[in-house]
Amino acid sequence: VGMLLTSYMGTQAQAIGYKRDYSGLLGRADRLVLMMIVPIVQHIFLIYNIQLPYLNLLSWVLVYFAVMGNLTAIQRFYSTLIWLRNDFKKVKPKLALNGRSVFLFPSPIKELAEAAHEVGAYLIYDAAHVLGLIGGKQFQDPLREGADVMNGSTHKTLPGPQGGMVLSDHKGDTDEDKSFLRKLNFGIFPGVTSSYHLHHVAAKAIAYAEHLEFGEAYAKQTINNAQHFAQALHERGFKVFGEKLGFTKSHQILVEIGPGKGKEASKT
Asked: Is the pTM higher than 0.85?
């Protein structure tokens, strides 16, 4: 796996895929990107900071069965994958983005990658919120499952300093692969960075070394804490999403508190 560490935030690491010039993964004439939308937990950065003439915003059904929490919803989920593959063929995007701010369960990356690659699109996995769980082998393995790029933050579930990273499993053993990696590299430098921010690099190295030693236990306990917290809230009458699926397989939970009740809940 190749890694770029020069970005100093997750969204900057993510931006390499969306630059519409001669660096990054999109060319000047490329127009179509498939992603989720903000109301179903897409990161707001993607909607308001990607300067593309047209965005096809697909509501990927990736948390839906978790929200519904029943077998019927799981069946709908898989039928949605069939619909999604057909939609890939219809719109022929250049990029497919799997990322969100609320990440309860692993995504069907194998199926999404197959759909993307059938039409020549790249699949980018935004691991900002779950990078430490992935590194701790407790979530999923996006690059091995077919994603072309995984980007993320180094300061969330991966408990390191403020920063970002970009990873790819492409080997560079073909001309196409070499071109891909060159675009990826140029997308970071000089695309969106001009310095390595060396004061971050040593701290990142220490954080990664710690994660190699303790990451699996850390990630496992993080998920365990979230599941127990969700169960405790459920037992106290809160409507926690995904009950029949164990509420979550990450560090996050979703609680329905009603329209406009967030401020009220924050005071309890």
From this structure: no
